[in-house]
Amino acid sequence: MSPLPPWLKKPIPKHSNISRVRKLMGENGVHTVCESAKCPNIGECFAKNTVTFLILGDTCTRRCAFCGVKKGIPAPVDPDEPKKIAEAVKKLGLDYVVITSVTRDDLPDGGAGQFVEVIRYLRLNAAVPEIEVLIPDNLDLDRVLEAKPFVLNHNLETVPRLYPQVRPQADYRRSLKVLRYIKDQNPSIYTKSGIMVGLGEKDEEIEQVLRDLRAVGCDLVTIGQYLPPAKQKLPVIRYVDPLIFAEYERLGKELGFLHTASGPFVRSSYRAGDLTPVRRSSDHPSPSEMERGYQ
Q1: Cα separation, 80 vs 65, whole angstroms
Q2: Taking the alpha carbons of 118, 90, 219, 193 in that order, is the dihedral positive or negative?
Q3: How far is CA 129 from the centre of its chain?
């Protein structure tokens, strides 16, 4: 693949706050997907006191070919993890928190109980009004829905044709069913999904993915450039021009998403609080009310 194009070169932020956030995460004994997945936005986000927490440990039971998170046999679930995350959130002063996890196929509920405990602990002990969770496809969804997160995110990651290479242990239709089930059970929860581009997909396939997401009621979508977290991961097939990302965003608006975040450095949880179209208040509109407002 050719060298990185100019639009994929980011200035290096000051290291003082990055080091402070890293130290804080280490002291609290919590993991972030920013570090575990080797996200290219880590410097920018840490410099702004923004992190995405990774629960259920740092070792995933699946072997997705695009992901930098460690694979293998996970450690037992840490019962103190919710408390540790709440303490870190208070120290960072966050009012919008994003929680994701490794996939734990070894757990009967997929780890749903830990998601619920983290949400509960944040509300009781860190006074966090807005919690977004990015979940795998194997959770006991009813348990997570009972906790009523503000945004429930489940990523499709890529187009269905590329699943055998990119997500061999996942299933495109199953992931769509997850998003449909969430919306069917609680229409007031915002649903969100994200995809990567640059893995060999065609633009018409991306359009079909967006149409499939709208067909299951998905409210929010993110589209970003795939960048391999390590040399042994899948190679980049193409670097998508920012003008094409703008076209994806235009298409998302045309299809009726409440918000489409599309750009080279966009990630599922990148600037999630800023990119969510409404922040919770005592009289915040529901997704259906917002959709009427966009028409």
Answers
A1: 31
A2: negative
A3: 18
What's the longest Cα–Cα distance across the chain?
51
Structure-block tokens of residue 208: 């079909």
| pLDDT tens column, 126-172 | 888 789 999 999 999 999 999 999 999 999 999 999 999 999 999 99
Catalogue the long-range contacts made by 288-291 (C-beta closer than 8 Å, 24 or more residues apart). 288/187, 290/219, 290/258, 291/219, 291/256, 291/258
Q: Is the pLDDT of residue 118 over 70?
A: yes
Q: CA-to-CA distance for 152 and 150, rounded, in angstroms?
A: 7
0.85 exceeded by pTM: yes
Q: What domains are defined for the chain?
A: 11-294 (3.20.20.70)
